Amino acid sequence: MKLQNRPLGLIVLLMFTFLNVYGRQESESQTQIIYLSGTGKDDMVDWDFYCSAGMNSGKWSKIGVPSCWELQGFGAYNYGHDPFEQRLNEYGLYKTTFVAPETWAGKTVKLVFEGVMTDAEVKVNGKLAGEIHQGAFYEFNYTINDLVNYGAENTLEVKVNKSSSNESINFAERKADFWIFGGIFRPVYLEVLPADPIDRLAIDARADGSIVADVFFNSSNVHEIQARLLDDEGKEVQELPITIASRTAGKWTLKTFAKEVREWNPESPNLYILQVNLLDHEQNILHQRQQKIGFRTVQVRAGDGIYVNGQRIKFKGVNRHSFYPTSGRTMSKALSIEHVQLMKEMNMNAVRMSHYPPDKHFLDACDSLGLFVIDEVCTWQSPALDTQVGRKLVRETVVRDVNHPSIVLWANGNEGGWNPELDDDYALWDIQQREVIHPWAVFRKTNTVHYGGYHGLAYDAYSQDKIFFPTEFMHGLYDGGHGAGLEDYWNLMWQMPLGAGGFLWDFADEAVVRVDKDGVLDSDGNHAADGIIGPYGEKEASFYTIKEIWSPIFIENRFIREGFNGKFTIENRFHFTALNHCKMYAKWVKFTGLPTTPAEKILARQELSLPALEPGHRGSFQVPLIDDWQSADVLYLTAHGPQGEELFTWSYPVKSPEQQQLPISHATADQELEVQDIGDHITVKTSDFAYRFSKINGQIMGLERLGNSIPLNGGPLILGQSAKVDTVLQERLGDQLILTIFFEAKDNTQQWSSEKRISSDKISWTIYPSGQLDLMVSMKSRKNLDDYKGITFSFPEEEVRAKQWIGDGPYRVWRNRTKGTQFGLWENEYNDTVTGEEGFIYPEFKGFFSNVYWLNVQGKHENGFKVYCKSPFTFLRMFTPKQPSDPKNGAGIPAFPEGNISFVKNIPPVGTKFHTADELGPHGNAQTIVGNDDEAINMEFTFIFDH
């Protein structure tokens, strides 16, 4: 963080000296903005500050503005669930100075606060600027012409109470389910306007080019209004013919039409600038305002859907708090852009402002980069805002944000916190007459129920004629929700005629830096660990799952087998873009250098032709097969959207695991196997290796290479198998030893026969003089599995440095979150992160990893190993993730198999804060269909100990 320590009055004085010397380069008809604070968290300006209680209280010092004072080492940290009587209800006193040049005399000078938490008493030169403002997240201003000393230094004082004297605001903002901060947390500036200014503009620009604008001003000198349309760079596009539809005191309404404009939508966020001039009788410009606009039409059609520019919309949205760990609610333009870009990267098209209006620059980023927005007045459950203060806050919200094309709906509070007396107030200030919703309720045309279970998507209740879009769903506590379960929900939502998508909870883990606790990141237990990304933007696994599921180019699942013809079925899930405006690329890759120096070799790159499918249509595209395409290991398909953005990269293994040629030599010129059968174990030795196998259970008891112990043991343990060993067979096959362990079959009364052996579980080791071990495991199956099926080993976790693997990665998977991975060559260092709670290191080292072909466990002391998995559709289990604290209904880590390195055929799903996994859809059920009862499941592996 950078603090500007120069005296603010000197800065302003020098600036205006510069302007005077160079002849006042700014036109008299323009608005001037002079910041008294910084513009965000990265360029704060020092003000004098006094805090009444908590850290660093009871004395005057300096504080950076804008900021939340807790993050600057003052006051006390509070989460909204804290009992009110345990809070320190501190207040802060702020003081700074500014110079008002004499040239401002006769102009309109406004003092603007973009956001203060929460009650703000403002004085200029010792006099009240106006009434105390209540409500933290709303812009307010005072006209201070009569309070300013021109040509001299002026003193600005602000008293900020962290809690409000209005109890309904405290319930809305101070007792809500989020972090509570105090301070002048958004910028403060002076707005200097001409004597006859445009107070504000309210504009309705429709997709057909029609414009209606309310021009607010208070001047008897206005004779005419002039309008021009500029492009987003400020270049004039066309002068607009004006019709004055009405003239009332303080407001003229004009109508006009722009020709051949490009519409605004999230896929093509085309923006323009409407320039409005007030002219006097001599055609002099009294004041000029410029307002960015986008041409688009929003309709909420009862019993039908939400339409933008005539297209029915599926919201692929997320809830987002204004939050950063080191600055609390104080943001920056750069961070707003980064957040919108991250949402766009996940193929989202919408965001809900939870649970208050955001910074203006966030809405600007939604306009320019393309996101639908639900803008919300801050309440949280009950009781609601009282009507008197609520009407002020609704007005402040709508007046500030009315012109953003990204905003398509208003939300009157959250989860029962709405005041019905305010529902119609939005229309008083919104020239576009956007609809109002009650998030989590059936209200007017919509049903926005929160956290419904998967089976609720049958949507056959009394509200079945309402447009359905949950404004919160798939609660992402820890590693649960978000991507886990989204595929099942979205498959249904996409097909629901009245389904308008939904909004995930939520965007980022809100872990705040506790300067009072040595900088620890604190998410208040499970209250704020809900993010798709970590506190500093770390991408969790669900980030990529969402990216794939919400890709506007949908490719049906397929597998490459013999006879592959290169044809893929595709669906256009854009709303406004034909597929011929997108790009698709193919890449054929071969893995080389295994097992010592693994690498990837690109065999070919291809640009593909996509069909000109309109939104909602299905078709196909062709990947030309390269010569000897079967020699590739994987085919990648990468789609790019109309702005060149990568939508997703899909991967398709070309070879099965058994088809991958193992670069292993069994040459044994100077090696022989020495076998010792001693009591309960069998020892097999060469000059380099020594292996011990249990005759009781067939498991490895000990491994050595060149005298160095390799601590892989305790396996293979067949999961879910309790039978005893019946027979141990040793067979010599050339220079190899085959050690086979048969377990007791169900019918123990029969004598051993070849038929009985076939029906029994068995383990077969093949030991080579080179030190290589081949393992074959045959297990009886059941048609419906409700427990793990596979094998497991033990390896000391403290001995592991890293892992490499070929398979799906780099993120771990759950049964209801397998999307978002790519088949490839991956590596990551050991970590012990707890998703959303501690560590925040991604990808996680521990967990389940799908479709594993090859694994290299890198030990700390040359005691690792490599294993080739020759069986398709095998999951690797690498250790057991730590259980997060208090995961509520289902967001905890499910039970893992015995041991800590396992190879299994089925894995568990994970739930959410509010739902167990089985409530989240088919993938959340533990049952797995694998074949007929007692059908054998065979798994084959090769182990190499050459570290």
TrEMBL record:
Residues 300-515 form the Glycoside hydrolase family 2 catalytic domain. Belongs to the glycosyl hydrolase 2 family. Residues 758-866 form the Beta galactosidase small chain/ domain. The lineage of its organism: Bacteria, Pseudomonadati, Bacteroidota, Cytophagia, Cytophagales. The keyword Zinc-finger does not apply. Its cofactor is Ca(2+). Residues 208-296 form the Glycoside hydrolase family 2 immunoglobulin-like beta-sandwich domain. This is beta-galactosidase. InterPro entries: B-gal_small/dom_5, Bact_Beta-galactosidase, Beta-gal/glucu_dom_sf, Gal_mutarotase_sf_dom, Galactose-bd-like_sf, GH, GH-type_carb-bd, Glyco_hydro_2. Keywords: Calcium, Glycosidase, Hydrolase. Its EC number is 3.2.1.23. It catalyses: Hydrolysis of terminal non-reducing beta-D-galactose residues in beta-D-galactosides. GO terms for biological process: lactose catabolic process. Residues 61-193 form the Glycosyl hydrolases family 2 sugar binding domain. GO terms for molecular function: beta-galactosidase activity; carbohydrate binding. It comes from Echinicola pacifica. GO terms for cellular component: beta-galactosidase complex. Pfam families: Bgal_small_N, Glyco_hydro_2, Glyco_hydro_2_C, Glyco_hydro_2_N. It is an enzyme of class 3 (hydrolase). Gene3D superfamilies: 2.70.98.10, Galactose-binding domain-like (2.60.120.260), Glycosidases (3.20.20.80), Immunoglobulins (2.60.40.10). Monomer.
